[in-house]
Amino acid sequence: MTIKTHAIVLAALSATLGGQAAAQTDLLPDIFVEPSYLYDNQITVEGGVRYLRLSNGTANIGLGKLYLRGGEINGDTRTVYQRVYRDDGSSWEREAGQFTHHSNHGHMHFDDWAAYRLREIVGQDGVGDIVAEGFKTSFCIIDLGVYDSSLPNFNPNGEFRSCNSTIQGLSVGWVDIYSKGLSGQVIPIDGVPDGEYWLESEVDPDNHVLESDEDNNISRVRVVIGGGGGLEPDAFEPNETRAETAGRAEGRAQQPKLRPLQPAAGPGRPDHPRRL
């Protein structure tokens, strides 16, 4: 009887501990490209090269924040670790790429955060081959503006308000924006025939970051190439992008909430409609 009783107690304790372990849930971020920012684009000629300049906005619509911590320093780079928080308050970390110092911006960026491409339009709305693409673009990831304050775990104050080499990230319901005038926001389009194309932006193309949904990282809008050789950029724009980036106004929770217009698909899907 004693042995049997002890066995029952141990089994119950094991079940309890197993239930507690199973109750832990990772609060993962979910990052997607807000397509409305892609409409802010312009053809320019710089140094004799024709470019399509574009703005880009990446928003976090997940249950948890994106938290990136700089670790070991290796010259001009730092190993990056993503900290994943759980619903019980605990957390764990995983390696997630690197920070690199960028002289054009004067601070550390998280490498390979976005990739920009032009693609053929096949038929009415099919996606065809890549006709032009830029280099993978690095970002200094911060809470720049409020995207959706109704999301669970939204922090009205934001957590990542400055760009540094130790901590970067994106809070739930916030968006980071890089305007078309900044370094790296280009696709070279010399030799691209005039016509209508998909302008495509993919966030985290190398999957450095662990997310709750890896299938909503691409957004596309239609653009027309042609109608002139492009505009020569102002001699003072883009200029010292470090000052421009540092001077970007911080987002506030009272900013107007962005709402979809007749949504046909969920946020983050390539055919999600433009937001105003």
Give the structural class: mainly beta
| Portion in beta strands | 35-45%
Low-confidence stretches: 1-10, 231-276
Biggest beta sheet summary: 10 strands, antiparallel
Shape: globular
Summarize model confidence as the mean pLDDT. 81
Strand runs, count: 17
Number of helices: 2
Give the total of domains. Answer: 1
Order of helices and strands: HEEEEEEEEEEEEEEEEEH
Fraction of residues in H or I helices? 10-25%
Question: How much is the radius of gyration in Å?
Answer: 22 Å
Distance between the termini: 72 Å
Structural summary, described in words:
- The chain is globular and about 55 Å long.
- Residues 1-10 and 231-276 have low confidence and may be disordered.
- It is mostly beta strands and 276 residues long.
- The longest helix has 22 residues, at 2-23.
- The protein has helices at 2-23, 241-246, and strands at residues 26-27, 31-33, 41-46, 49-54, 56-60, 66-74, 77-86, 91-102, 107-122, 126-133, 137-139, 145-146, 167-170, 174-178, 186-188, 195-203, 218-225.
- The chain is 10% helix and 40% strand.
- The protein has one domain (24-246).
- The strands form three sheets. Strands 1, 6, 7, 8, 9, 10, 11, 13, 16 and 17 form a ten-stranded antiparallel beta sheet that branches.
